[in-house]
Amino acid sequence: MSDAPLPPLLLVGCGKMGGAMLAGWLERGLTEAVVVEPHAAAAAAFAGKVTVVPEPAAIPAGFRPAAVVLAIKPQEAAATLPAFARLAGSETLFLSIMAGRAIAGMRALLGGEAAVIRAMPNTPAAVRQGFTVACPGPGVTAAQRALADRLLSAIGESAWVEEEGLIDPVTAVSGGGPAYVFLLAELMEAAAIEQGLPPDLARRMAQATVAGSGALLAASAEDSAQLRKNVTSPKGTTERALAVLMAPEAWPALMSQAIAAATARSRELAG
Ligand SMILES: NC(=O)C1=CN([C@@H]2O[C@H](COP(=O)(O)OP(=O)(O)OC[C@H]3O[C@@H](n4cnc5c(N)ncnc54)[C@H](OP(=O)(O)O)[C@@H]3O)[C@@H](O)[C@H]2O)C=CC1
Ligand SMILES: O=C(O)[C@@H]1CCC=N1
């Protein structure tokens, strides 16, 4: 990865995901960014590090971002994007992380000629351990794709697909995936309390177990199935738990249904 400073960015929407990415980029040495965010409190953590404005009209004259990162809710796109059409058609890249929103619809809202990359990151980007899958739209140049890859690699791993439809299941799996893992921690904590453990200890155990397992998975040469088997002593305790969780109607069916439901919702949000 290049050690050159990241180029100037315009971030539109500094909520949970936009803020997570910005935190990662600042840690990676971003020095010039303007953030359009109507709620000053949402961007308060970045005070003094970036310029925060409440609306596009307040973007400093002469600010020329290399990329405009669209991190607003998909439902806000139609009302928000036309204000940025003046930046389209130049060298500026539009990098959208909006769930569902299709490239063709975004280009239409940006005047028809914009270079748009649709990407799906996740919140571990805040600690530079995100995973983003991106898809280039028509007219995106090799240099713009390289810029997007640099931005996304600065906050974790990145991968590319050429078929835009694949971003919908990506959204369901890695985009929303951290929520499923955090839910696992919540449920383990509640079950620990049910078995008589003090709440404080239950929380620490659940959080450390999820975080430690993630770190082991990241560091190990073994895959997740093998790491699971390594915990499961024959005729032991884990085997009993996994018999419940791995029953066909339990986690295998539920995870499949959950991912299908999220994928379908992403398609609905296409706009
Ligand atoms: N959260 C996640 O883990 C992920 C989210 N995404 C995508 O990222 C996008 C943002 O999600 P998330 O961060 O969770 O949402 P948030 O609601 O936390 O963030 C969006 C922010 O943008 C503000 N906003 C609304 N309208 C405008 C506008 N016209 N100009 C600038 N800012 C505006 C919102 O204000 P207000 O609340 O008033 O609307 C809010 O503060 C979504 O499209 C989502 O699909 C993608 C991957 C993961
Ligand atoms: O829930 C959502 O719609 C967004 C997209 C992936 C994660 N959060």
TrEMBL record:
Reactions the enzyme catalyzes: L-proline + NAD(+) = (S)-1-pyrroline-5-carboxylate + NADH + 2 H(+); L-proline + NADP(+) = (S)-1-pyrroline-5-carboxylate + NADPH + 2 H(+)
Compartmental location: Cytoplasm
Keywords, sorted A to Z: Amino-acid biosynthesis, Cytoplasm, NADP, Oxidoreductase, Proline biosynthesis
Domain Pyrroline-5-carboxylate reductase dimerisation: 164-269
EC number(s) stated in the UniProt entry for this protein: 1.5.1.2
Stored InterPro entries: 6-PGluconate_DH-like_C_sf (IPR008927), NAD(P)-bd_dom_sf (IPR036291), P5C_Rdtase_cat_N (IPR028939), P5CR_dimer (IPR029036), Pyrroline-COOH_reductase (IPR000304)
Biological or metabolic pathway of the protein: Amino-acid biosynthesis; L-proline biosynthesis; L-proline from L-glutamate 5-semialdehyde: step 1/1
Domain Pyrroline-5-carboxylate reductase catalytic N-terminal, chain residue ranges per copy: 11-100
Main location: cytoplasm
Example of a GO MF term: pyrroline-5-carboxylate reductase activity
Keyword Oxidoreductase applies: yes
Homology family: Belongs to the pyrroline-5-carboxylate reductase family.
Annotated function: Catalyzes the reduction of 1-pyrroline-5-carboxylate (PCA) to L-proline.
Protein name: Pyrroline-5-carboxylate reductase
Gene name tied to this protein: proC
